[in-house]
Amino acid sequence: MSLFDWFADRRKGQNVGKVSQEADEGDGLWWKCPECGQVVYCKDLVDNASVCKNCGHHIRINSEERISLLADPGSFQALDKDLSPTDPLGFKDRRAYADRIRESQASTGLKDGVTTGFCKVDNIPLALAVMDFRFMGGSMGSVVGEKITRLIENATSKKLPLLIICASGGARMQEGMLSLMQMAKISGALERHRESELLYLPLLTHPTTGGVTASFAMLGDLILAEPKALIGFAGRRVIEQTLREKLPENFQTAEYLQEHGFVDTIVPRTQLRETLTKIFRLHGLKANSNK
Question: Domain check: are 28 and 131 in the same one?
Fold first, then answer.
């Protein structure tokens, strides 16, 4: 959970800019798109990568679903899957941090907010990290930072391309300075990966904010984003109060950032595998079943 999300939780009922997206809607068989109102059979929705065929609205999906959509069947091998967070500060706000960890682990089946490992995409080996917004808003604590750093170091030693799928509210405030240190640690590992002339691609999904945006999300050789994803550092309200100006309606969307040069290309989820394969081949990467 980021500092921004914590204040939002304390001021329920007030619109403080907390990122939100619809939960599952309907009765389990049908789903109504919140953007266009189209009613869709859930199986058809899942078959289309959880993207509305009528308007292209992208529903937030979890890390397991993303890996299933992206990786070649049976190719994903998890790394450091047993790493679990502790409570170094004995932090407590409305609830103890230790209780929040246990609650998130029970509800998601994850140890923390990122899944890392190796897979193949069209038989091309890839180091992959997938953040999961369900786990305390995808916030970046010590375990998230450590798992991503270890993955990058493994990718560097194995000479593999790297993809990080970002979905986060930012640094995890319950770990204080320890969470902020992850920004520098991951960035340092990415620099060593770059010095080895290896490819790194971040995919920015809804939402990518805070310390994640301020570090590894914006350090890619090519920066990819899903359509209409919220991408930014501080919230709209904070920026408007600081600048004393009204911001454009599409401010901090993937489209706005692409227009202003912060995002290289917007990739619909249904086209991600095809796009990644093209990028890999343009960079001279070849299928290798031995890795």
Answer: no
